[in-house]
Amino acid sequence: MGFRPAPERTTCRALVTEGSVAEDNYGESVDRLGRTRVRGELARAHLLYGEWLRRQGRRLNAREQLRVAHELFVAIGMEAFAQRARNELLATGERVRRRSNEVRDQLTPQEEQIARLARDGLSNPEIAARLFLSARTVEWHLRKVFTKLGISSRRQLRETLPDGASRANV
Predict the structure, then answer these.
(1) Could you write out the three-class secondary structure of 32-97?
(2) How far apart are CA 2 and CA 77, in angstroms?
(3) Helices 19-33 and 39-55: crossing angle, nearest 10°?
(4) d(Cα 48, Cα 62) in Å, to the nearest integer?
(5) Could you tell me which of 72, 15, 22, 63 has the C-alpha nearest to residue 43?
(6) CA atoms within 13 A on the CB side of 152
(7) pLDDT at 113
(8) Please, what are the averages of pLDDT over each run of 10 residues along the chain (170 residues)?
(9) 143 in Cβ contact with 149 (< 8 Å)
(10) How far is CA 52 from CA 39, 45, 57, 63, 68, in A?
(11) Annotated domain spans of the chain
């Protein structure tokens, strides 16, 4: 057995090659990283492979890689990369389900409280005054909530966090 570069180098080689050579490098990278504990790099390799497959017009194959990438990124809390994987899945035509029940359990009590107040129509300054926080802190928590729930507006909070779905009362 000859010299075998580190798995992340295999991913880098895949990025600068084309055709079957690139596909072999992506496959090897995913395989080798799958045998390590480096979950972030594994998720990134799946994401890059899925993006490459989508650009090659192989949407179904891309979806497999992108789903794995999305799940890994969500599990380890790499929210920006999870959103990137979600966007790529949407580009393949897949409807990415909102995991509101699972993700709602991952909201911190503070995030959930702020999300419920925003859902009920309070502005950031009103929420801040009620919780003795700054409006900027409220804004920061809401951005995290939106990312975790996979939404982009307060209006969507009503669908994602129904009135009876909260764990605690304000």
Answers:
(1) HHCCCCCHHHHHHHHHHHHHHHHHCCCHHHHHHHHHHHHHHHHHHCCHHHHHHHHHHHHHCCCCCC
(2) 37
(3) 160
(4) 10
(5) 72
(6) 2
(7) 93
(8) 58 76 85 86 92 92 92 87 91 69 68 93 95 92 88 85 52
(9) no
(10) 20, 11, 9, 11, 15
(11) 7-91, 100-165
Distance of CA 139 to the CA centre of its chain: 20
For residue 35, what are the CA distances in angstroms to 39, 42, 149? Answer: 10, 9, 30
Q: Distance of CA 28 to CAs 39, 73, 95, 126, Å? A: 16, 20, 28, 53
Question: How far apart (Å, rounded) are the C-alpha atoms in residues 92 and 74?
Answer: 19
Q: Both tokens of residue 161?
A: 């966090």
* Structure tokens given for 14: 């895949």
Kindly indicate whether the domain formed by 100-165 is annotated with CATH number 1.20.140.10.
no
Q: Which two tokens stand for residue 82?
A: 């999870």
Q: Which two tokens stand for residue 32?
A: 């080798």
Q: Within a 10 A sphere around the Cβ of 44, how many other Cβ atoms?
A: 22
Phi-psi region of 100 (alpha: psi -120 to 50; beta: other; left: phi over 0): alpha
Residues in the chain, overall count: 170
